[in-house]
């Protein structure tokens, strides 16, 4: 890898020991590595992150978490779906971060559920990332009925594995996208320009 290689970080938002959310982002990271990126998995089970208190916003391992996300070029957020939304541990992790970590950063979303498609979790994460001014990939990955999709902790469903791997590839391809690129139209908005004297 070169020093200017894209660095992709995946955050696992599950504390469950046998979680299917943990192996799923690894497929995305493997695809990112195959696309020339360096990668890192942040397993929230390994960090001490107390419930967020704005008066104690550097509690536990929060500074380390924020640093690792801040240094990434792209971030993948993986979550199980709980009651139609994403996990509380991932919410806590995101609460310890802010614009310094996410503004204009490329973010990919992945959700896993024991039942139907975890669309609610993906939608809610997209709203939070937009509030942080992140650039959220249009492509997202969902793994429904997870207990039937994995064999020996590996995604056995080829279509879903391809979708998850595509998320990793997109995280590399769009890591350095300009959220507000110059365009012909950006110079033609007469109403935004000062009127001539």
From TrEMBL:
InterPro entries: Flavoprotein-like_sf, FMN_Rdtase-like_dom, NAD(P)H-dep_reductase. GO terms for molecular function: FMN binding; oxidoreductase activity. Pfam families: FMN_red. Residues 178-197 are annotated as: Disordered. It comes from Natronococcus occultus SP4. This is Putative flavoprotein. Coiled coil: none annotated. Residues 7-147 form the NADPH-dependent FMN reductase-like domain. GO terms for cellular component: cytosol. Its cofactor is [4Fe-4S] cluster. Belongs to the SsuE family. Isf subfamily.
């Amino acid at each position: 890898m070169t020093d200017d290689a894209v660095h992709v970080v995946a955050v696992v938002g599950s504390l469950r020991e046998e979680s299917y959310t943990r192996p799923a982002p690894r497929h995305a990271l493997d695809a990112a590595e195959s696309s020339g990126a360096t990668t890192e998995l942040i397993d929230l089970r390994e960090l001490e992150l107390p419930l967020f208190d704005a008066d104690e916003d550097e509690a536990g391992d929060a500074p380390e978490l924020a640093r690792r996300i801040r240094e990434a070029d792209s971030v993948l957020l993986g979550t199980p779906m709980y009651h139609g939304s994403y996990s509380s541990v991932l919410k806590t992790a995101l609460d310890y971060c802010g614009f310094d970590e996410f503004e204009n950063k490329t973010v990919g979303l992945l959700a896993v559920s024991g039942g139907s498609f975890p669309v609610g979790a993906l939608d809610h994460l997209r709203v939070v990332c937009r509030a942080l001014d992140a650039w959220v990939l249009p492509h997202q990955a969902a793994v429904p009925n997870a207990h039937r999709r994995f064999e020996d902790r590996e995604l056995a469903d080829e279509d879903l594995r391809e979708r998850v791997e595509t998320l990793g590839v997109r995280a590399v391809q769009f890591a350095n996208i300009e959220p507000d690129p110059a365009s012909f139209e950006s110079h033609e908005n007469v109403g935004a320009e000062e009127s001539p004297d």
